[in-house]
Amino acid sequence: MDMLEQYRGDDNGRLICTWAHMHGKRGWKSRDTLDKARAELTTSGFLFETVKGKRPNKASWFALTFFAIDPNDGYDVSPKAFPFMAFADLPTIMQKNASLTTPTVSQAA
């Protein structure tokens, strides 16, 4: 939700998820939890990294995959490589999270 709240309609691909931004403006309390959440959203196809951050002060940029990517010459990747709706591959995501699914109970005949 915090990533979605940053989106203004013309900046998909330039959203940030830094500790300074999320802790200060969004109220996150754990750097580890933020790192895990960002990694999970990226792995599951909801976020796509458009710019790789570099120390000491260049933040990674992200795009939400359920909106079209907005053009920008500063991306490290080609907009053609953008995986629009990547999360929609539900069988793959469900296999990765198989421990989260509940077993179905069969009824006796």
Distance between the termini: 45 Å
Sum up the overall morphology in one term. Answer: globular
Number of discrete domains: 1
Number of strand elements: 2
What would you say this structure looks like, in words?
The protein has 4 helices and 2 strands, in the order αααββα. It is an alpha+beta fold and 109 residues long. The protein has a single domain (2-86), classed as Arc Repressor Mutant, subunit A (Orthogonal Bundle), CATH 1.10.10. The chain has a two-stranded antiparallel ribbon. It is globular. It starts with a helix and ends in a 13-residue tail after the last helix.
Give a brief rundown of this model.
This protein has 109 residues and is an alpha+beta fold.
Main features:
109 residues; Arc Repressor Mutant, subunit A; 28% helix; 4 helices; alpha+beta; two-stranded antiparallel sheet; globular
Which helices and strands occur, and which strands form pairs?
Blueprint: H1 2-6, H2 19-24, H3 31-43, E1 47-51, E2 61-64, H4 90-96
Antiparallel strand pairs: 1-2
